[in-house]
Amino acid sequence: MERMLPKTTRTSYEGVIDADGHINEPHDLWEKYIDPQFRDRAIHIGIDTDGRERMQVGGRPSKYLNADLLARGRGMGFTFEARDELTRIPYKDSLPFGASDPKERVQLLDFEGLRKAFIYPTISLEWESEVTDLELATAYTRAYNRWVVDFCAGSNGRLIPIAHICLTDGRMEVEELERAVKAGCKGIFIAPHTLTDKPHAHKDNDRFWSAVQDLDVPVAIHPVAEPPKHRVYQRFREMYRWGEWWVDILGGQGPQQAFLALFQYGLFDRFPKIKVVMLESGAGWIGHMLDRMDAAYDTPLGRSVPLKEKPSFYFQRQCWISADPDERAVSYLIEYLGADKFFWATDYPHDDHTLGYIHALDTLVSPLSERARRGILGENVARVYNVPMN
Amino acid sequence: MNAAERNLQYRIPYNNIIDADGHVLEPPDIWEKYIDPAYRDRAICVRTDNDGKEYLEIEGHPSRFFNLKTFTLLGSMGETAEQMAEKMKAGAYVESAPFGSMYPKERVALLDREGLRATILYPSIGLTWECETEDPGLSLAYAKAYNRWIVDFCSDYPDRLIPVAHISLADGNGAATELERAVKAGCKGAFVAPFTLTMKAHAHPDHDPFWAKAQELGVPVGIHPMAEHPSRRVYQRFKDMKWADWYHNVLGAQGPQQALFALFQYGLFDKFPTLKVVLLESGAGWIGAALDRMDTTFETALGKSVQLKEKPSFYFKRQCWISGDPDEKALAHIVDHVGNDKFFWATDFPHFDHPGNYIEALNNLVSPLSEAARCNLLGDSVAKVYGLN
């Protein structure tokens, strides 16, 4: 059967790069790519008691990664009903165009007029909520990282692999980080929580930060499914079960917490050259957050922050943020906050944004100056990740 | 130089300026004096332990989360860490209350000196106790006692000091009754915590009598951040961060954001189409981003769970307002985009988590705005929403 392109459109701009596009991992990725000693615990798809699919994680049925979540990860543009139907169709037979085949993804980029896409996973955004074994976690990331390098290998630089790293107090992730970058990854991403519950910038993780600084690769914080104890939305009983709109729009709060904790721990004076990127958390809030960070820093509360300069100084020096194309308020903030600070991303093929992303992007950038427009469309992300525009 | 002194150095060249959210430091005996007799033995009060040390008693037991000394900090706006440490050591909450924080005549004098027309008043101790009780009757009795007191506090200056009622949401009918009583007594609106005692969302149908009453009376309901129970705090992400004062404070808006968004998830604004909701002390510069995200997610499969006919921003424009901090700089850039009649500003006086130079900061905030936007933000919008003449 002929594979259909998704109903997106073509951008009217040049030099456009997706800073955070997703793939759907092949169902057998971990079985194929994991180190042999972990193969019996490789992530794979199983069948749930209700007959629908459920991922197997750590050698047992996943607590959270059921058919619903799998459908959300490949359901962009689906209606509520169609998405529900998708939960009963085998994963491997219903992967969206370009989500699991690099040739298709390049075709999609061509269709949309995009030069490149930075590639992030989907299933890999889910398992960190339920794995506690740091060795297994490292093995899962290594398997994904090997695969994503292979996935991007034939694309002539159009698809850019980013490594998934799980912090383990500097014990195992540094080795994987160095291996993945050597293998071709242009940057890495981490979850907004850690398996050790230690803040990312805790001094126990200094080996990690030191290594990324030496390698000169950006570290992105990307939202992932979180273990219940870390979820931000514990305020109201029962809403987690049915209020999926509410839960989704709060998705930026965890990454905000992770981002703020970097400043609270004074990371940016300790590592003055690391580059930190905020992904898939929106960007229109960052001006407000920087105002609040600076204002509270100016009160006695700021005493607890071991930084020499006010927080916004370090944002300007070492941080970047990716906007959703459907953000409208961000257009009014970009020039003020710094035209070189913003990226944009498709989030394709996840269900919580619409397929209208190209049209939305064109609208977002149309009021900007030439410099700011070129920056957010692609030049910023290319510069920060040291990849050529062409 | 403390907050009041710093602000005196600065005059703002505009009129009709209203502080949408200033605080009083309540004398700690107001609950004993103003509570219904049935609850008097459990009134919030100051007690002395066997060692002669004073402590705050709530619900008949020592406060689980606060000691009295911490309340001295609430009046420390503009002070240095050393001054605050000194204050904590002395622990004299009443004696160290700054000018204008505890007595109405002083507060009006402060407004005069700063060139402000009026202030809508919120409590300080009253923002801490709701996380310590699960008793709906007692919590409403505490709120009622405060509401009686704040009406008395403001009574000599009805155009300058504006009382709003504290409502604790658990029993919808009880909340409605107290709202009606308080508004009849002079309160111009109400405020609720960003959480509820029962962990049912504010817009849960059980609370409908309260929302119906607020709509009927035409008074706005504010969501104001409060001290939260540790189990419900938003920042449970990392261990060993108890020391991180700055982090916790900067995250203070996340709880109110969750509460606000949940009103939309429950479809409150179609159920009560003339209800007015105000978000307080949570900053405002993020609201554009939030509305964008709310609308775009509403258009996906996830929007199916939202019980609203129109997209969320429609209801924000119709029924919500938000108060900005004077020290916000990004806010000016989105005011016209979001709607220049949607914003208030507030001093947060005399709390210590904002710098004390709010008049100067306010001037910086409004100077790039159009005249209409500036007048609205400075006072016209809050006057309209709260029915202040």
Q: What fraction, in percent, of the residue positions of chain B are helical?
A: 25-40%
Helix content of chain A: 25-40%
Could you tell me the radius of gyration of chain B in angstroms? 20 Å
Task: Give the spatial strand order of the biggest sheet of chain A.
Answer: 7-8-9-10-11-12
Biggest chain-to-chain interface with counts: A-B, 78 and 77 residues
Roughly how many Å apart are the termini of chain A? Answer: 33 Å
Order of helices and strands of chain B: HEHEEEHHHEHEEHEHEHHHEHHEHEHH
Largest sheet of chain A: 6 strands, parallel
The fraction of residues assigned to DSSP E strands of chain A is 5-15%
The mean pLDDT of chain B is 93
Q: Beta-strand percentage of chain B?
A: 5-15%
- Backbone shape of chain B: globular
Helix/strand/pairing class of chain A, anyone?
alpha/beta
Largest sheet of chain B: 6 strands, parallel
Strand order of the largest sheet of chain B: 7-8-9-10-11-12
**Content-based structural category of chain B:** alpha/beta
Question: Which stretches of chain B of 5+ consecutive residues score pLDDT under 50?
Answer: none
The string of secondary-structure elements of chain A, in order, is EHEEEHHHEHEEHEHEHHHHEHHEHEHH
Count every helix of chain B, treating DSSP H or I runs of 4 or more residues as helices: 16
What order do the helices and strands come in, and which of them pair?
The complex is a heterodimer of chains A (390) and B (389).
Chain A: E1 17-22, H1 29-33, E2 44-47, E3 53-57, E4 60-66, H2 67-72, H3 80-86, H4 102-112, E5 116-120, H5 134-153, E6 159-161, E7 163-164, H6 173-183, E8 188-190, H7 206-215, E9 219-221, H8 239-242, H9 244-249, H10 253-264, H11 267-270, E10 276-278, H12 286-297, H13 311-318, E11 319-323, H14 334-337, E12 342-344, H15 357-365, H16 370-384
Parallel strand pairs in A: 1-5, 5-6, 7-8, 8-9, 9-10, 10-11, 11-12
Antiparallel strand pairs in A: 2-3, 3-4
Helix pairs in contact in A: 5-6, 6-7
Chain B: H1 3-8, E1 18-23, H2 30-34, E2 45-48, E3 54-58, E4 61-62, H3 68-73, H4 81-90, H5 104-114, E5 118-122, H6 136-154, E6 161-163, E7 165-166, H7 172-185, E8 190-192, H8 208-217, E9 221-223, H9 245-250, H10 254-265, H11 268-271, E10 277-279, H12 287-298, H13 312-319, E11 320-324, H14 335-338, E12 343-345, H15 358-366, H16 371-386
